[in-house]
Specification:
This protein is an alpha+beta fold and about 200 residues long. It has a four-stranded antiparallel sheet with strand order 6-5-8-9, with no helix packed on it. A four-stranded mixed sheet has the order 11-10-13-12, covered by helices on one side. It has a three-stranded antiparallel sheet with strand order 3-4-7, with no helix packed on it. A hairpin with a 2-residue loop joins β10 and β11. It is elongated, with a radius of gyration of 26 Å. About 15% of the residues have low confidence.
Length: about 200
């Protein structure tokens, strides 16, 4: 009798397992997470996500099926490199000439999804003389105590700064300007030489 009961239970479990495979929604919208023998649902990426590009920044919308603000990864070069982001929060994209956008969850061996409505995201070459990058450097020079100079934002890592004929590497300029500012010595940008990669500062 016990064998019959066990057989019935076994068949029932197998049948339900097979049925659930076909009855569950597509993995594009939600997945099953099995942990410690318990099954729970969690949000998954929405394949109909959208993105907008403005002022060299890209912003993603409708990324998660449950409208969460969880972090995800995106690529604008067809999957060669990945950058972390959150829905609704802009990410600076200097020098992007084309956008082959894919997104995926954080983790290994996860499936990426390509944007269905491609966007144009060309903000030209990333050089300090461009208006957006120039403004970042100008804001920093006007008050270097707020933060260090971000190479990713200003595209000036390979540049040097010239003050009264003395060249200072971009790596050291934050410290120099910070100390001078505390001593009431202030500067402004005089010019940017992209050919020789020099940013000229003048003392006010």
């Amino acid at each position: 009798m016990k064998n019959i009961v066990y057989s019935i239970v076994g068949v029932t479990v197998i049948t339900l397992s097979i049925a659930s495979t076909f009855l569950l929604p597509d993995s594009e919208y939600e997945k099953l997470c099995v942990s410690g023998g318990e099954v729970s649902m969690h949000a998954s990426l929405n394949t109909n996500f959208t993105a907008k590009f403005k002022d060299c920044e890209i912003t993603f919308f409708d990324v998660w099926q449950d409208n969460s603000l969880e972090e995800f990864l995106f690529s604008n070069d067809g999957g060669n490199s990945w950058i972390s982001a959150k829905p609704g929060i802009s990410v600076l994209q200097n020098g992007v000439s084309q956008c082959d956008i894919w997104i995926k969850e954080i983790g290994d061996n996860v499936r990426p999804y390509k944007i269905k409505k491609p966007i144009n995201c060309n903000c030209g070459p990333c050089i300090p003389s461009n208006i957006d990058q120039y403004q970042i450097i100008e804001d920093f020079v006007s008050n270097p105590t707020k933060a260090y100079l971000s190479f990713n934002n200003c595209c000036c890592q390979d540049y040097s700064f010239s003050i009264n004929g003395n060249e200072i590497s971009s790596i050291l300029i934050s410290l120099k300007l910070h100390v001078d500012y505390l001593n009431n010595i202030k500067y402004s940008i005089n010019s940017v030489d992209d050919d020789n990669k020099i940013i000229y500062l003048v003392r006010l």
